[in-house]
């Protein structure tokens, strides 16, 4: 549940975005610039948070009036092992050190719904963060690190699967299905694609982050639409966007079917009237952008 | 010992609350001279004029018929003529269901010095297990003259429940000893079973009743939600369950918007606290609490999906602000929970007993009647199942509304009649209309 420090939205003095060259970061930076909010966009090329001395380097660039958005992470497609876990924790430790040295006006941490176990079919913000893999544990540990080190209002956002044409990850979701359809004319599902998941368009995720920044919100919020679909239905929707036939095929199932739905009541209360982009519309947009960028 | 006759006994009730007023009226109706005491002289004066502080079907008639045996006073000394005195004040609860026992202790401290030595003191308001025995030790009443009696007040059915109780659950220091004669005579006048038991059992019996009700409600709500998703209709299923002898015709199987009103939440919190203190498992109770919160917000999620996502700056008509029909209480009201999530939108509200208050919603507008609330609105939400709403013609609703959405969790309006006039009718436990787009 979020608490708004500003009942009426107000633009932050400056937003420092860590992970600014990534999928969500790039979209957020563009959105901030679009509405005229000053941004300091930092990617790993500008400041390697996993490197020695990163904490003090970041502190040197932080100002007390800044809103800091921490998006940097090695995502599971770049490795799920111990090395990735430790690198991610070094980044977390660096940010924790920086905000201890220079307290920003607001800290927003983009966590993940990976903190919830897949045994929970319906989750909300009160669901136990009972992580079952290192990626989830990493995010949960970072959440606690941020809470322990930052005296500013802290918003922890746990997004579901984010999709959009600019996504560089290749995890099992709309982006991978779309690329497979384009490349091979075929989408291959795990099993028959029975699993249900909630997919949020990156524009919507960023719009919500903007609201969090403008209200200087603190607390915990899941970023999800509240509507889940099966991978089979998702694949059919993606396939239908192509002019040429796309085959959707199943495979023999290797893992048990799991489902993930979100009760988004807390989000509706935090931001009444927020209207999510319908999945069909979002997929069509991502498809158009991908084709335009071909 | 010869039991005293009904006509000579005087029964006192301290605390002219919803519970106290209805219980006092029922005692008078059973032929007992009754004294109603309250610390608030204004409330006492109003009661003396038969101006009732609570809304309860049948209560005005009871006052009119038996008022000559009812006396109200703000002078505690008048309780000195009573054979039995009930403590019937409210026990406030906080946001997480914790009880504040300060008013009970305060009232007892006021009443006890006025009592005759042979009078029986009965704690009728709800107290946690262990309270009454500790009170007995504190007051030196370990001789059976201190009783805990389970109240089973239901808002909207308080008169019926007070006049015709299913049974009396009576907690005593020692259930092997007979009840005080005057108290036994009083209870006997109601003609129902009397179940004496030790204090702790009676205190937990009240909670146990409510836990069973919550279990049924939670089951109904869980399955009703599933019905909404798979195209089943809970209203078709529930009657078949009631014909099962193991479940029964009076089972609480009506789906609702979570648990409201305060009392059930208090008992849920008490069980969790006791279980934590004593190391027993309360996981299921915590699941009920989570399910209640989830279902409370059904209307908000439905509004988001069916209206907010489709209509820019919608206007909402809301029927009902009270937490249930036939009461003016708004404690934990699902309607107010909904309003708190409709921040930027105009809300046109009507409730027969609760006035629209800006504290409920910054853009609330009070309507003169149900149809007035509908005028120009994009959707109608029926949030309290008042009988008066059933009489409103769906044709008039359709004519008054700008939109077509009727979100009616309790199914107050007739689905077929709504559909006939072009309205989309969404109810709890039924997926049919909810799946229309």
Automatic annotation (TrEMBL), chain A:
<feature type="domain" description="NAD-dependent epimerase/dehydratase">
    <location>
        <begin position="15"/>
        <end position="219"/>
    </location>
</feature>
<protein>
    <submittedName>
        <fullName>NAD(P)-dependent oxidoreductase</fullName>
    </submittedName>
</protein>
<dbReference type="InterPro" id="IPR036291">
    <property type="entry name" value="NAD(P)-bd_dom_sf"/>
</dbReference>
<dbReference type="InterPro" id="IPR001509">
    <property type="entry name" value="Epimerase_deHydtase"/>
</dbReference>
<dbReference type="Pfam" id="PF01370">
    <property type="entry name" value="Epimerase"/>
</dbReference>
<comment type="pathway">
    <text>Bacterial outer membrane biogenesis; LPS O-antigen biosynthesis.</text>
</comment>
<comment type="similarity">
    <text>Belongs to the NAD(P)-dependent epimerase/dehydratase family.</text>
</comment>
Automatic annotation (TrEMBL), chain B:
<dbReference type="InterPro" id="IPR017476">
    <property type="entry name" value="UDP-Glc/GDP-Man"/>
</dbReference>
<dbReference type="GO" id="GO:0016628">
    <property type="term" value="F:oxidoreductase activity, acting on the CH-CH group of donors, NAD or NADP as acceptor"/>
</dbReference>
<dbReference type="Pfam" id="PF00984">
    <property type="entry name" value="UDPG_MGDP_dh"/>
</dbReference>
<feature type="domain" description="UDP-glucose/GDP-mannose dehydrogenase C-terminal">
    <location>
        <begin position="317"/>
        <end position="415"/>
    </location>
</feature>
<dbReference type="InterPro" id="IPR014027">
    <property type="entry name" value="UDP-Glc/GDP-Man_DH_C"/>
</dbReference>
<dbReference type="InterPro" id="IPR014026">
    <property type="entry name" value="UDP-Glc/GDP-Man_DH_dimer"/>
</dbReference>
<dbReference type="Pfam" id="PF03720">
    <property type="entry name" value="UDPG_MGDP_dh_C"/>
</dbReference>
<dbReference type="InterPro" id="IPR036220">
    <property type="entry name" value="UDP-Glc/GDP-Man_DH_C_sf"/>
</dbReference>
<dbReference type="InterPro" id="IPR036291">
    <property type="entry name" value="NAD(P)-bd_dom_sf"/>
</dbReference>
<dbReference type="GO" id="GO:0000271">
    <property type="term" value="P:polysaccharide biosynthetic process"/>
</dbReference>
<dbReference type="GO" id="GO:0016616">
    <property type="term" value="F:oxidoreductase activity, acting on the CH-OH group of donors, NAD or NADP as acceptor"/>
</dbReference>
<dbReference type="GO" id="GO:0051287">
    <property type="term" value="F:NAD binding"/>
</dbReference>
<dbReference type="InterPro" id="IPR008927">
    <property type="entry name" value="6-PGluconate_DH-like_C_sf"/>
</dbReference>
<keyword id="KW-0560">Oxidoreductase</keyword>
<dbReference type="Pfam" id="PF03721">
    <property type="entry name" value="UDPG_MGDP_dh_N"/>
</dbReference>
<dbReference type="InterPro" id="IPR001732">
    <property type="entry name" value="UDP-Glc/GDP-Man_DH_N"/>
</dbReference>
<dbReference type="InterPro" id="IPR028359">
    <property type="entry name" value="UDP_ManNAc/GlcNAc_DH"/>
</dbReference>
<comment type="similarity">
    <text>Belongs to the UDP-glucose/GDP-mannose dehydrogenase family.</text>
</comment>
<keyword id="KW-0520">NAD</keyword>
<protein>
    <recommendedName>
        <fullName>UDP-glucose 6-dehydrogenase</fullName>
    </recommendedName>
</protein>
